[in-house]
Amino acid sequence: MNEEGFFEGTEKLLEVWFSSSLSDGKSDEARYTEAGGRIAGPDLRRIDRSLWEDLLKLVHCEIISMKSDKDMDAYVLSESSMFVSKNRFILKTCGRTSLLHAVEPLLSLVQSECDMDRVDDLFYSRKKYTRPELQPAVHQNFNTEMNHLDSLFDNGAAYALGRMNADCWYLYTIDNIGVLQPDQTLEVLMQDLDPDVMDIFSVEHSHSADEAGRTSGVSQLMPDMIIDHFLFEPHGYSMNGILPNGQYITVHVTPEPHCSYVSFETNVAEESYRELITKVIKLFKPGKFLLTVFANKDSLAKNFYKELSRLNCFEAYHRCDHEYCQFKNYNLTFTSYLRPPALPPR
Amino acid sequence: MNEEGFFEGTEKLLEVWFSSSLSDGKSDEARYTEAGGRIAGPDLRRIDRSLWEDLLKLVHCEIISMKSDKDMDAYVLSESSMFVSKNRFILKTCGRTSLLHAVEPLLSLVQSECDMDRVDDLFYSRKKYTRPELQPAVHQNFNTEMNHLDSLFDNGAAYALGRMNADCWYLYTIDNIGVLQPDQTLEVLMQDLDPDVMDIFSVEHSHSADEAGRTSGVSQLMPDMIIDHFLFEPHGYSMNGILPNGQYITVHVTPEPHCSYVSFETNVAEESYRELITKVIKLFKPGKFLLTVFANKDSLAKNFYKELSRLNCFEAYHRCDHEYCQFKNYNLTFTSYLRPPALPPR
């Protein structure tokens, strides 16, 4: 929150997949010593919490809470979330954080601590900020973000989807075959939310994160999640839900009426996300929202883009834009929807 | 050509469809007096050549030649081409021209001379320039172009297709239902062309535009065209081909080896452009090329995007990017191809 009471809910989102050229084609897990008893071999979870904390200092955010299962460590941060599994790193930060300052240190950290020297795939994305001028220098416009990443990667590919003079969404990825296991990510980025729903996410209206999660319905979005969530003072809410096999959902709520923003993200594999998206928008009642769907060739969701391309409307919302990109291994769909203005009273 | 011998072949391309709210739903052609004997009713061809010349002064280019048939006036310009039909205006200009300076004057001219007060659709597009810093101020980056057009239109929608850190392509259009007759446009934008082919388009190698057109094969790209073309000194070539029913092809060649560029554009209606594109790339032998295909719901070409989405290669060229946008009435496909580097000699 800055002095004007404005908060930039829009997150910067980084997802990186690592591997080790040392273990190439060999079954050489034995070459690695056990670290901390739990983890052996090239694994991002070998990195000490204190080293993650150092990395997050560069971003200007910190760890609030952490929960784990056997496949993933999920962190709630002071500004959004971090998910660490064997070879996949996800960092999502909102506000005035400087996520890109962590990319090069992350690569060094992973190389030195986990012997993982290869970036198999990388995705940096964000919606256009509401107030770009309040961001740290490297994030003030997508050109500077792109130039920063171009200085780190030889095969970077930068895109803008949607309307550049409205709510577009930027992506920087690398032109690789990338991840060779089923993978998909759905994001629902919502603005202009229902004030009554937003009220739930304040200490004035809810006594705890549990209460806010239960009353709003966020905690029931998926069955059988390990939930870790936090209700900020005076308002704001973050939730991580851990599901089996490295699957997650994460929800972040910026309830301030003049800059309300909610993001929903998941990598849960589904053939169609229609039902899940419907649940999410019925819960939050946004005035407008964007969908982004990534799916690679082995993903259950690989044909969901066809369903989306036929939907001129989503519930009461009208589609504004629909774009589809084919990358080497992934397809990406961007769609934006708007609730038409209510008819004036007669 | 500037002092460094660099020429920006990349064109700015404007297409505007006009109509008259005065003739709305009425058969009121009689309300208009005959202008010049040939044209009655709301028709862009009622505009005097001298008024077009004044408009083109704002762009910093001039008319070199003109040919017509009953449906269209086609102009070869000192920098590219202009096509004027009853309700469609196309202006394509290369080099350091300032096309956007003509947009507002064009709207006024059409309103005052032709009683056409409505813009049914508008498309402004260009590839990323090779040397943006040499462009006039309004054209130096897409943000300034977008802001200029946003100042003229309430419902503008601006997009970037392809890689913003490589050869992307920008589009500004308006969010309208737009044109209600079959319409389609194909562009093939080529770079790094074969030097032997480029040699043909110089006065050193060809005695006339006719010879350059015939030797290169450009004149035979379509049967039965009315051809108007021009060979520039010392090199460079422009060609307009008029086909029945307001159809055209236009080809522009910048042959300088260090900045070679060729554009091919047509609105000829075809179910598949595969054969035509193959002809064009076999003729010019580019190192890389972009395709853009617009087709509206009534167009023969409306499903060509599906064919393109399946083509990972085009002849010997590998696909780099493939993007697809659905607008209210048009779909748009952007695809980029690269010739893989030749294997080193053994």
TrEMBL record, chains A, B:
<keyword id="KW-0068">Autocatalytic cleavage</keyword>
<comment type="similarity">
    <text>Belongs to the eukaryotic AdoMetDC family.</text>
</comment>
<keyword id="KW-0745">Spermidine biosynthesis</keyword>
<keyword id="KW-0704">Schiff base</keyword>
<dbReference type="GO" id="GO:0004014">
    <property type="term" value="F:adenosylmethionine decarboxylase activity"/>
</dbReference>
<dbReference type="InterPro" id="IPR048283">
    <property type="entry name" value="AdoMetDC-like"/>
</dbReference>
<dbReference type="InterPro" id="IPR018166">
    <property type="entry name" value="S-AdoMet_deCO2ase_CS"/>
</dbReference>
<keyword id="KW-0949">S-adenosyl-L-methionine</keyword>
<feature type="site" description="Cleavage (non-hydrolytic); by autolysis">
    <location>
        <begin position="79"/>
        <end position="80"/>
    </location>
</feature>
<comment type="pathway">
    <text>Amine and polyamine biosynthesis; S-adenosylmethioninamine biosynthesis; S-adenosylmethioninamine from S-adenosyl-L-methionine: step 1/1.</text>
</comment>
<feature type="active site" description="Proton donor; for catalytic activity">
    <location>
        <position position="94"/>
    </location>
</feature>
<feature type="binding site">
    <location>
        <position position="232"/>
    </location>
    <ligand>
        <name>substrate</name>
    </ligand>
</feature>
<protein>
    <recommendedName>
        <fullName>S-adenosylmethionine decarboxylase proenzyme</fullName>
        <ecNumber>4.1.1.50</ecNumber>
    </recommendedName>
</protein>
<dbReference type="Pfam" id="PF01536">
    <property type="entry name" value="SAM_decarbox"/>
</dbReference>
<feature type="binding site">
    <location>
        <position position="256"/>
    </location>
    <ligand>
        <name>substrate</name>
    </ligand>
</feature>
<feature type="active site" description="Schiff-base intermediate with substrate; via pyruvic acid">
    <location>
        <position position="80"/>
    </location>
</feature>
<dbReference type="GO" id="GO:0008295">
    <property type="term" value="P:spermidine biosynthetic process"/>
</dbReference>
<dbReference type="GO" id="GO:0006597">
    <property type="term" value="P:spermine biosynthetic process"/>
</dbReference>
<feature type="active site" description="Proton acceptor; for processing activity">
    <location>
        <position position="252"/>
    </location>
</feature>
<feature type="modified residue" description="Pyruvic acid (Ser); by autocatalysis">
    <location>
        <position position="80"/>
    </location>
</feature>
<dbReference type="InterPro" id="IPR016067">
    <property type="entry name" value="S-AdoMet_deCO2ase_core"/>
</dbReference>
<feature type="binding site">
    <location>
        <position position="79"/>
    </location>
    <ligand>
        <name>substrate</name>
    </ligand>
</feature>
<keyword id="KW-0865">Zymogen</keyword>
<feature type="binding site">
    <location>
        <position position="7"/>
    </location>
    <ligand>
        <name>substrate</name>
    </ligand>
</feature>
<keyword id="KW-0210">Decarboxylase</keyword>
<dbReference type="GO" id="GO:0005829">
    <property type="term" value="C:cytosol"/>
</dbReference>
<keyword id="KW-0670">Pyruvate</keyword>
<dbReference type="InterPro" id="IPR001985">
    <property type="entry name" value="S-AdoMet_decarboxylase_euk"/>
</dbReference>
<feature type="active site" description="Proton acceptor; for processing activity">
    <location>
        <position position="238"/>
    </location>
</feature>
<keyword id="KW-0456">Lyase</keyword>
<keyword id="KW-0620">Polyamine biosynthesis</keyword>
